[in-house]
Amino acid sequence: VQFFLASFLFVLYVELNSRAYSLPLCSSTNLSTMSSSAVDELFKQWRSKCLTTGSVEKTEDAQIEARILFKTLSNTEHPGALARLIQCFEPCFTAETADPSVRLVALSYLFGAVQGCILLSTPILELLFNFLLPHAGPQEEVDDDDGDEIRDIALAALKALVECEIDTPDKNVARSITLRLQVAKAGVERRCAQDEQDETGMSDAFRR
User: Fold this and answer.
1) pTM across the whole model
2) CA-to-CA distance for 80 and 173, rounded, in angstroms?
3) How far apart are CA 128 and CA 131, in angstroms?
4) Which of 109, 197, 200 is nearest to 153 (CA)?
5) What average pLDDT does the segment 94-122 reach?
6) Helix, strand and coil in the chain, % to nearest 5
């Protein structure tokens, strides 16, 4: 339920915001040297990799691949691409996805995508925070080791978002700073919840 609500709000916000500024999300607008449809097709290939392999060994490759792609996009293209990526990855987060490594690889792609974004507006950051925070907490019906991997990658993605540059023309600068502080605290608290790990293991992502 949290995934569907977060992804719906994210996509809805980007859709409405893009219409307000006459910037179509799914048109033939070029994303770097690739068309929007070509990027969407790449997202589908990533989703297929998640669902067919679900290999933990693929997490670093997924992160790098997504980071490289998003670094080629402009700041104005990032929100739409992120929204479509999350929407495309919906099957990776459903209850029917029994293998937690599927979710782990999907989150690795999202982590890499976030790393490739330099500047995101406060509303976009807030929507991404709300999507990622549940994954940083205890994972029901998932083995401790697998659950820890999922929580660590979600926390690392939250850290990357917290470190994004503040959009200075953004009228919500004060809100952006406050939000980042709140999320940094909430992320660590979620990671520590019902977790017996020592202090070093539970907060490394926010210390680096």
Assistant:
1) 0.76
2) 22
3) 5
4) 109
5) 85
6) 70, 5, 25
